[in-house]
Amino acid sequence: MQYALAWKLWQKLHTDSHPSLTADTGTAVNGTSLPVKIHDSVSGITVETEWTKEHGSWKIASCSGPDMKSKDGTLKKTKHPAGGGFSFESPYTEELSFYYGMPQAGSGTVSGDFGISRIWYSTSSEYPCLGFMLFLQTDMLTCLHTSSSAFNTESYSDDRRVIPGVGLKYRLPMTVSNLYIAPYAAVKAGYNTDSFIDSYSNTIVTGETGIQLGINPDSDFNVFGGIAFEYEHNNLSSAEADKTDIPRIVCSLTCAFN
Predict the structure, then answer these.
(1) Do 209 and 248 contact (CB within 8 A), yes or no?
(2) Residue 193 DSSP code
(3) Nearest C-alpha neighbor of 241 from the set 230, 233, 249, 250
């Protein structure tokens, strides 16, 4: 196998059909050991190999992993061969998502939540699937209000909420041929800004799991569709809101880029 790999690589280095491959040959040791650096100008990958001569023929004795980091230490974008291939990776490090959450029956909301989120994924090789999120969403919740009259009457009403917050998202991106698939899980925490003028404090914690789908994962900019299940918990008591836990089905449209 080592002789076969050496022969195939030598062919690629000496044919016009692979002009992107170049080799930097070092100094032979005792005429039987030769270090060779092989560089692909398209992907930017450099592989260090050690060639050994046995029985009059050269074979590859060792081969280091490709250098997948650029000079600044961040991960390089890897192109996927058109028409085939499978890998656990994503070429996209940033996302801008627009989403709508449809409340389930009896959830205590009278409208779905509209939102926008901005996500930055880690560019380190240790945590390439972890992203930091900023979001802003709005919905309506049925809440309890006490009148300022002498009778202090209480009644429920539908309140518009505006909720900014932060979160973490973990994705498991996969490319299958020309298809991009990314199951994910996210956790978010936010604060209802209307709480400053109401008599109650309303913080929320949300868990979400879903999947994103797209095509042509080699492009520098892409748009994905997504669907997820979200469960939101409000810190309101049962005396302050009709329902404190809100399940939703979330549909999203995501712009992905570097």
Answers:
(1) no
(2) G
(3) 233
Both tokens of 241, joined, read 């809101």
d(CA 258, CA 251): 23
Short-list 188, 179, 168, 158, CA closest to 222: 179
Instruction: Give the ranges where the chain is alpha helix by DSSP (H).
Output: 2-13
| % of the chain exceeding 90 in pLDDT | 27
Rounded to whole angstroms, how far apart are CA atoms 143 and 169?
30
Which residues 6+ apart lie within 8 Å of 76 measured at CB?
43, 44, 45, 68, 69, 70
Q: What are 156-204's pLDDT values in tens digits?
A: 566 778 899 999 999 998 888 888 899 999 999 999 887 544 555 678 8
Half-sphere exposure of 68 (CA within 13 A, CB side): 12
Which of 20-24, 66-70, 90-94 shows the lowest per-residue confidence on average (mean pLDDT)? 66-70
Scored b (16 or more CB within 10 A) or e, 38-75 reads beeeeeeeeebbbbbeeeeebbbbebeebebeeeeeeb
Q: How far apart are CA 211 and CA 249, in angstroms?
A: 12
The H-or-E segment that residue 144 falls in is: strand 130-146
Q: Which residue has the tokens 């061969």?
A: 81
Please state the φ and ψ torsions of residue 50, each to the nearest 5 degrees: -125, 120
Tokens found for residue 240: 């302050």
